[in-house]
Design goal:
InterPro entries: DUF4317 (IPR025466). It is built from ten helices and 20 strands. The chain has 369 residues and is α+β, with helices and mostly antiparallel strands. A hairpin with a 2-residue loop joins strand 15 and strand 16.
Length: 369
């Protein structure tokens, strides 16, 4: 799913749309015991409660695409009978009305979800009457083409509030506040089916993880039913490891500066594409060949089996800053100034040269250059 599609679904979670037909919740303690379960028509909730739930649902569709939000595609085998995909389809068809199926879903999540503290599982059934769009992409509210029927699952931590003093207005005193169990913003979740090209896509799901380096792999495997993808952090670490292993003898400051600039140019060229830029092995061969390494090094990368990976460009290069570290010293610059940095040998010692202009500050204090 691209950002525009995600945002369209996200915007439906407000009190004016009424897309949520039902909700179900399951509160689980740290020992994986179910403390209570609930199910009801969503808009039977008090308005303030519904507002808090909607905030959770919107947060489950928030974050960077390719980092916190990952589209997971099902293979043909992963859509066969007796698979998690088949169960999700059955759960969706039940409209949360079948108590046995709903109970089975919650117990599957509890078995698969790896978390050592209390948490709250929320599942909603939603029906979105997709408005048509004119050629200029403006919505036509009275031209509905399809109803998108989806499930959104949010898993939220439940933590004990900190001890504190509080003002009690009725008594007119400040005294110790009773500690409460508070439902936080979601850690993980998913939307099924995906909403691809503004239509129902039962061959994919959208997965959410609050932390880019904390994909809950067991949950993805057992509940959604696909092999867990590499997290954005793992993509970066794997990419850097391959680059270092294959090109270590030629990874100089000028080469890394040129490689970063070339990757940023490619990202800029792709900026109008709603799909994030994926770097393949062939892409990387072209990029490193333009970055000042030898033909032999390019050939080594091309022959490396470890380099047969695909990563999102935004996950492996920082689009905002370029950082150089040496013991005791860190130099940061914005990406537009990468080429201004240079290395030079002076009196037999290597130096990193940073050009300075008339405006110079030291610890926020303007000084003379």
């Amino acid at each position: 799913m691209i950002r525009e599609e995600i945002n369209e679904i996200k915007k439906q979670f407000n009190k004016d749309t009424n897309v949520i037909t039902k909700y179900a919740g399951c509160y689980v303690d740290a020992e994986k015991n179910i403390k209570f379960m609930t199910k009801d028509a969503f808009y039977s909730l008090p308005e303030e409660d519904a507002f808090k739930y909607e905030e959770i649902f919107r947060k489950t569709l928030s974050g960077a695409v390719g980092k916190s939000l990952l589209t997971l595609d099902f293979s043909i085998d992963e859509e066969s009978e007796d698979t998690p995909h088949a169960f999700l389809m059955k759960l969706r068809e039940s409209r949360l009305d079948d108590e046995l199926i709903l109970d089975e879903f919650f117990r599957k999540v509890i078995d698969a979800y790896e978390y050592a503290e209390n948490y709250y599982i929320i599942l909603v059934d939603m029906m979105y009457d997709i408005p048509g769009k004119s050629s200029d992409k403006l919505a036509m509210e009275d031209a509905s083409n399809e109803v998108y029927h989806g499930l959104l699952c949010s898993i939220c931590p439940v933590t004990l509030s900190k001890p504190a003093l509080s003002y009690f207005a009725n008594e007119g005193v400040i005294a110790n506040r009773i500690r409460d169990w508070i439902v936080g913003m979601p850690m993980h979740g998913f939307l099924f089916p995906a909403f691809t090209e503004r239509t129902t896509d039962i061959h994919a799901a959208l997965y959410f993880s609050k932390k880019n380096d904390a994909l809950n792999e067991s949950f993805i495997n057992e509940i959604i039913g696909v092999n867990p993808p590499m997290s954005s952090v793992m993509q970066k670490e794997t990419f850097e490891a391959v680059l270092y292993d294959v090109l270590r003898d030629e990874l100089t400051m000028p080469v890394m500066s040129a490689l970063s600039s070339n990757m940023l140019d490619l990202i800029a060229e792709n900026s109008q594409n709603p799909e994030p830029l994926v770097l393949t092995k062939n892409d990387m061969v072209k990029l490193i060949s333009k970055s000042g390494v030898s033909d032999e090094a390019v050939e080594s990368y091309e022959k490396s089996a470890d380099a047969d990976i695909e990563v999102l460009a935004d996950n492996v290069v920082d689009t905002k800053k370029f950082e150089v570290k040496t013991p005791g010293i860190t130099v940061k610059t914005d990406t537009d100034s990468i080429e201004k940095l240079e290395t030079r040998v002076i009196d037999g010692r290597k130096y990193l040269l940073v050009p300075i202009e008339d405006d110079v500050e030291v610890n926020g204090m303007p000084v003379k250059a």
